[in-house]
Amino acid sequence: MGVVPVQETHDPRPTTRLFAAKWRHEHLRMILIGAILSFAMITMFISLLQDASAKSVTIVDGSSSSVIQTLKDDVTGLLKEQNIVVGPFDSVSMPLTASLEQGSTVVIDRAVGITLQADGKEAATHTTADTVGEALAAMNVTVQADDRVIPSPEEQLQDGMKVTVVRVRSEVVETKHPIAYTVVNKKDDNLESGKQKVVTTGKEGVLVKKTERVFEDGKLVSERIVGNAVSQPAVQQVVAIGTKKKAKVVTLAYEDPKKDENRTLKLNGKTVKVRRLLNNVTLTAYSAGLESTGKSKGDSGYGITASGTTVSEGRTIAVDPKVIPMGWWVYIDGVGFRRAEDTGSAVKGKKIDVYYDNEKHANRFGTKKGYTVYVIGPVKPSAD
């Protein structure tokens, strides 16, 4: 008989191992998913914690502005975090050690380099000011009302700009200038023709000019006249011009030269008795001025003779009363008729001092000797 093989049944161990492997696989996946979920939750939790502690801070850097979230506690940390470099001349609105708060604003003013020229000096400097005027104020540079600032104080500052302050000073000075006097000639029929006499002495006036001078940085740049005023008017000079005709030259003739009382003088056909004849008379001249009398116009007794009359050119002479009586008329060769009205300490003997208005002319007259003088008497001869 044949043998029928008996089939072997399944070994239960492989089935158990498969189940265990399957179980481990399922649990490993669960563990992995759990780990991933846990990591995600932890990450989210940390993120939530970070978000909860972050601060919103505004940074204004020059002309730009931005709002950021930061975990930094102070300004220094914030600047490092944002890679912001602050220069040595820049300005930060908060101290670098200041704590940051929610909503804090940090302003950074960037400095610009400028060149300042003022008061004879030029220097390079940095400033965080916005305008030229603000920069000058920050540098304690005083600008007066008349000073000029280039560029204008309202100009916005730019890096590398040159700012110039021009010091402007003005002054008004007074200067005096002479005003020439005019000369007026007037005819005088009491003065011999060809002669002149100063009646009123001319005097220069004074004109005061006011000039405004403008200086920039000590240098004169302009000047203009701002006013004229006459502080003293000129006094015109009045000159008398003689129109009186000169008397004809007289011819002297004596009927009897031995007797003084019988001597006669023919003047224009008229006979005049001569009391006395003086030979070798010395002539000098004088005036009423300071050099001759020691007096000036305005002084008491100026121009008054010893006899009380007022001196008059063409009439007055000073004599020695012992030789020629006061008030008597004489005739001097080459000079003419004159009247003894004055005396003088130096007029002694046969000496006569002839009066002239012009002091310079009197000085130039000098001393003349050898003149003949005819003593007539107290009455002046006339053609009548």
UniProtKB/TrEMBL annotation:
The keyword Ribonucleoprotein does not apply. GO terms for molecular function: hydrolase activity, hydrolyzing O-glycosyl compounds. The chain crosses the membrane at residues 30-49. The keyword Ribonucleoprotein does not apply. This is DUF348 domain-containing protein. Pfam families: 3D (PF06725), DUF348 (PF03990), G5 (PF07501). GO terms for cellular component: outer membrane. Keywords: Membrane, Signal, Transmembrane, Transmembrane helix. One of its GO terms (biological process) is peptidoglycan turnover. Residues 165-245 form the G5 domain. Gene3D superfamilies: Resuscitation-promoting factor rpfb, RlpA-like domain.
